[in-house]
Design brief:
This protein is an alpha/beta fold and 501 residues long. It is built from twelve helices and 16 strands. The protein folds into two domains: 380 residues, 3-Layer(aba) Sandwich (Alkaline Phosphatase, subunit A), CATH 3.40.720; 64 residues, Arylsulfatase, C-terminal domain (2-Layer Sandwich). Helices cover 25% and strands 15% of the residues. It binds calcium ion. The site of calcium ion has 5 residues, from loops.
Length: 501
């Protein structure tokens, strides 16, 4: 596999030699919906000396179990996701960037969202190469729990069981739950919420069990079944939290009642804390079963924060980063990523740096596919192009020579930020807009930021650095071409393609 460095490969080959089925590491991919980089008490950003730096939002949220995982693992300051759900979710499953897999917009369960003529609004199918199907073939018991959002209603990929998962708990076509409350049957018992009623979980209907808790209990039970089978497991633990509706998780409401923030903002914080409890419960359970040293936990968000804290383009939801979910700014694209063994120890199949912050290189959601294949000794099919790389060198605190220095977010659709491509290359960031009129606003066609000196995207250098702007636009266009990007169509049926400044 091209993503593995020679050294890692050699070490890994030695490690795999003589390994039997039962000591392949278990993997938990712990995905949180709409959680941005700052929605946690774990400081993810660093100061000039590379030391973690707390910002006010770190003081608002309470995530003690993320702190626990961060202490025994490595966290990334510069980890990129797509700006909305489905593009990231398909990247996690395929290792491809959204311009390549063509799920460039969130999948509306009922209709095709506006965009390029044949963007892949039908999502994943059983014919696609997917991470769980590859792991399944390699002897893993594959468990899905929570929010799927891989394909529209009544399409094959709406059910994760058709995409390589042995077990599907509560996953379906949509991304927003009708209700988080057991008394509402998660939408099934309330006619107003029925359109987005969560499937399964009937035994928790009419109870006080919050949705985040129900999917965690069911995931734990599925893990126990895997352990009985003596096969390694892959758990894709995918929280509906903290997506709207912003309902309060009553277990944590008191912690925020004096925050001085709005009711929805406090509710969002309770959704985050309930998700964090789930992480702790899973880690505790692994310890109780004695498999904590042989279980790798990868924690990640699916797009920038959607915390209801203020204006979309400003410095609120992801402060000090600019913007939020759905935007082209860093607050829309940067997410928390933490990797660690459920417990560090002799049974870990490779070492991971502890209490470490990796800020030197970027990481992306495309890398998770390659990382899990690498960690489990699973091969990527030779005809399946991937855009990510294995992060294992970075998890060990080393420079990753395979790591590309760019991240491309191509969004030829209408949403909060519409018709844009955002391209980070080294420390430079270009935002290109295919339409400059968005609602009542007129926005610049080009924005250029030097993230090294201006990490919060305050000074647009597009006019001051014409040569840099031109070079970066050329590089962005080449990358779009390499990934086979599609373009939106304007009212005169003309493709909206980028143009050089
Ligand atoms: Ca999302």
């Amino acid at each position: 596999m091209r993503t593995i460095t020679l050294l890692t490969y050699l070490l890994y080959s030695l490690h795999l030699f003589g390994q039997n089925e039962s000591n392949k590491p278990n993997i938990i991919l712990f995905l949180v919906d709409d959680m941005g980089l700052m929605d946690t008490s774990v400081p993810m950003l660093v100061n000039k000396d590379g030391k973690p730096q707390k910002h006010p939002l770190n003081g608002f949220y309470r995530t003690p179990n993320m702190e626990r995982l961060a202490k025994q693992g490595v966290r990334f300051s510069q980890f990129y996701a797509q700006s909305v759900c489905s593009p990231t979710r398909v990247s996690l499953m395929t290792g491809q960037n959204s311009a390549r897999h063509r799920v460039t917009q969130w999948i509306n369960p009922e209709t095709k969202n506006h965009g390029p003529a044949d963007w892949n609004w039908e999502g994943l199918t059983s014919k696609d190469v997917t991470l769980p199907a590859l792991l399944q073939k390699n002897g893993y018991h594959t468990i899905f729990s929570g929010k799927a959002h891989f394909a529209p209603t009544e399409y094959e990929g709406a059910d994760p069981a058709n995409l390589g998962f042995d077990v599907n708990i509560a996953g379906c076509a949509f991304g927003s739950p009708g209700s988080y409350l057991g008394v509402d049957g998660y939408g099934n018992l309330d006619p107003k919420r029925k359109k987005r009623a969560i499937p399964g979980l009937e035994k928790y209907h009419n109870t006080d069990v919050f949705l985040s808790e129900a999917i965690t209990r069911e995931a734990i039970s599925a893990i126990d079944n895997s352990l009985k089978k003596e096969s390694p497991f892959f758990l894709y633990m995918s929280h509906y939290a903290a997506h709207s509706p912003f309902q309060t998780d009553p277990r944590f409401g008191d912690n925020y009642k004096d925050s001085g923030k709005s009711r929805p903002a406090n509710s969002f914080a309770t959704l985050i804390e309930g998700m964090d409890k789930s992480l702790g419960d899973l880690m505790d359970h692994l310890e109780s079963k004695g498999v904590e040293e042989n279980t790798l936990v990868l924690f990640v968000g699916d797009n920038g924060s959607d915390a209801p804290l203020g204006d979309t383009y400003g410095y609120f939801s992801s402060a000090p980063l600019r913007g939020k979910k759905g935007t082209c700014y860093e607050g829309g694209l940067r997410v928390p990523f933490i990797a660690g063994w459920a417990k560090p120890g002799k049974a870990n199949s490779f070492p991971i740096a502890q209490n470490a912050v990796h800020y030197q290189q970027i990481g992306t959601v495309m890398d998770i596919y390659a990382t899990i294949l690498d960690a489990t000794g699973t091969k990527n099919p030779s005809d399946h192009t991937i855009d990510g790389v294995s992060l294992i060198p970075q998890l060990q605190g080393k420079n990753n020579p395979d790591r590309s220095d760019h991240f491309l977010c191509h969004f030829p659709h209408s949403h909060r930020s519409s018709y844009f491509t955002s391209y980070r290359k080294e420390d430079w960031k270009l935002i290109y807009r295919y339409k400059t009129k968005v609602g009542k606003r007129t926005l610049p066609q080009y924005e250029l930021y030097d993230l090294a000196s201006d990490p919060y995207e305050k000074t647009n250098l597009a006019d001051q650095k014409p040569n840099k702007l031109k070079t970066l636009t050329e590089q962005m266009m080449a990358q779009l071409k390499a990934e086979g990007a599609q373009y939106a169509i304007d009212s005169s049926k003309k493709e909206l393609r980028p143009i050089l400044p």
